[in-house]
Structures are given as structure tokens and as C-alpha cells.
Amino acid sequence: LVVHDPPLAGGIREDAVHHHQAHAAAVTDERGRWILAAHPEAANEVRMGLLEDGRVRLVVMDRVFTDAAGERWVVDYKTGRHEGADAGAFLDRERERYADQLLRYRRAQGGRARLGLYFPLVPGWREVD
Questions:
Q1: Residue pair 119/98 in contact by the 8 Å Cβ criterion
Q2: Exposure of 102 by Cβ count < 10 A (0-12 exposed, 13-18 middle, 19+ buried)?
């Protein structure tokens, strides 16, 4: 039996496959399993308002939780792929690229959160100071 699913408009099907691959990679990766584990105060897609420059800015954090040591974490998932030879340099560039965004998330958490970028398809991890 061969089943052909109809193509979906705007690449929705490809996006769904890509996100499925990222999730599958995360659950087979030790860091991914740690991020996705049942932590205290864990939540996904956390929306908060943050006052910046006299204006309220909405931020959406991918994963927020408190670890076993009592530390608050904000983790941002990045589902991009890296095709080059130097994955470490790629991850370092991505950390610089997204540092301001993650520091904004820390401010939304009252200034007390550790910050991480997780790349399940690389796989890779970078903490942001």
C-alpha cells in the first residue's frame, strides 16, 4: 500500500518534517533529554511582557525550568542545520547572534536565569553569559 499525502501550501509539510526531526534528535541526545525532562516549574512557549525603553515588549521563551540545583534556566531551541566542518565555530557565531535576545529573556525572568541555546540537529549547546 502506498499512500501519497497531498502537498501543503507554503512549505508547511516541510516545516512539520523539520520540527519532527529536531524533536527526534533532541530525545536521543543527552542534553536534549535534560532540557525536556520533567523539571520543577517547567513550561514551554512562555510569554511575558518586559518593559524596555518605556515600552512593553512581548517575549516568548521556548523552555523555562528550574533544575535540581534550584537554578532557573531559559533555553532557546534553534532548529537550523550546520553543513560545514567546524560546528564549534558555527555554534560560537550563533551564540553571539542570539545573545541580546537571550539576555532580554533573562531580564524578563527578573535578571536571575541561566541561558542556553540548544541545536538538536547539529547537535550542539552554548550557554550565554
A1: no
A2: buried
Distance CA 26, CA 36 (A): 8
DSSP codes joined into one string, 82-104? --SS-HHHHHHHHHHHHHHHHHH
Q: What is the DSSP letter of 8?
A: P
Burial of 39 (0-12, 13-18, 19+ CB in 10 A): middle
Neighbours of 78 (CB within 10 A): 19
Predicted TM-score (pTM) of the model is 0.80
Per-residue pLDDT tens over the stretch 60-111: 999 999 999 999 999 999 987 767 778 899 999 999 999 999 999 999 999 9
The phi, psi pair for 121, rounded to 5°, reads: -90, -5
First to last CA, the chain: 53
* Residue 96 or 13, more confident: 96
Residue located via cell numbers 513550561: 43
